[in-house]
Write the structure tokens for this entry.
Amino acid sequence: MHDVDIQIKEIERALHNEEFRFYFQPKVSFVTGKILGGEALLRWILPDGSVIMPDRFLPQAEKSGLITDITAVMLPSLIEEIEAIRSIRPDVQVAFNVSALDLHSPYLIKMLRSFIGARRIDPGNLQIEITESAVVEASQRIQATLNELVELGIEIVMDDFGTGYSSLDVLSRLPFSAIKLDQGVVRRMSEDAKNTQIVRSSLSMARELSIKTVAEGVETKGVYVYLMASGCDAVQGFWISRPIPCNDFISLLEENRKWPSSSLGLLYTAWMNHNSYRNQVLDSVYALALTEKEEWNHLPKTDLVHSPARCRLGGWYLSEARGNGGSAQFKLLEAPHRYMHAAGETLVNAALDGGSPDDIRQAIKAFIDYSEAVDAEVGNIVERWLGEALDGEE
Ligand code: C2E
Ligand code: CA
Ligand code: CA
């Protein structure tokens, strides 16, 4: 069949003949190296067994509006497959792509609510992927649908991140819990440093906003380990597996295979979050010192997390220490980190309460000293881990 030959009538017929199937592409956690779930991708299987890829029929289906029929017909069969997958892995996360048209009408929510109400799946078993371009002009209707999905407990993922124009604005307005780095940008990292920079700044921005990150289009081990070290959360790509039929996906889950993993990225992410706290404290004190009290309610709003347990670095060593039977090496980080956050609170309060310049100067010094102690300890941990990785290579 030739591209231009695919008519809407053909697609409708195929839908009624049940020629559409989902293939599943696994998504692996960089932290555990295990499969977390997968993405459901539409395939048109002709009676002779040949497969037509979505880019050959979805654009027409989208233009004609038939896409909403495809979603409505395919969603129940996807739920059935998720039920089968759940019997192997109850916490599996299957991502499903929806178009802007699907978000315009209430049927998507209605169907999902009934599947979840009937306890056939947990809301955590399903994620909805939408592209930025589908929601740039987010109408009130689309916003309302997205909010309802989130209320149901379903996560929304922004697909193809790094290709759009207004990602930041859209990200802050809509309830996304993760971004998926565009596969083209990820693939071109091996050719062009600019793409590497786009990926790195997307990862760091997501970190600042506490949004999870998934990389797509990973075709080589080199790109895989680079993203792992950069603190990306999860990964999809041909290097792990192509999209495969549901039964094969279930067999893959049963194998319980493990890909390379490292908690270095997790530490890196936690440390960045902690550094962002340090910079925000210093910037706030600086801004307070340079302005009159009357000006203070015009200062940009910040979210200073003084509690050490709520800092990601605090969360990191708590969970590492737990996982390693309270291992002493993480304990060395605990005290300076706790003191630093306490010093941060004292410093900001001194600046707010109009403490004397000397008090503030002293508070700044204490804060910076503890901050350096934290950095040195993180450096020690990283050095030890890299050493272990090199030993492993010998
Ligand atoms: P997408 O959502 O960005 O999906 C990822 C595409 O990248 C998939 O193509 C996948 O096979 C491909 N891919 C994944 N890893 C690699 C890799 O390492 N290298 C390369 N070269 N490609 C990789 P696919 O299955 O052809 O899907 C194309 C697009 O069709 C999807 O892009 C999505 O926008 C759309 N689509 C697929 N299924 C559905 C669906 O059920 N509903 C809707 N509305 N759209 C769908
Ligand atoms: Ca997708
Ligand atoms: Ca994508």
Notes: The first strand starts at residue 20 and ends at 29. The domain at 266-390 is CATH 1.20.120.30 (Four Helix Bundle (Hemerythrin (Met), subunit A)).
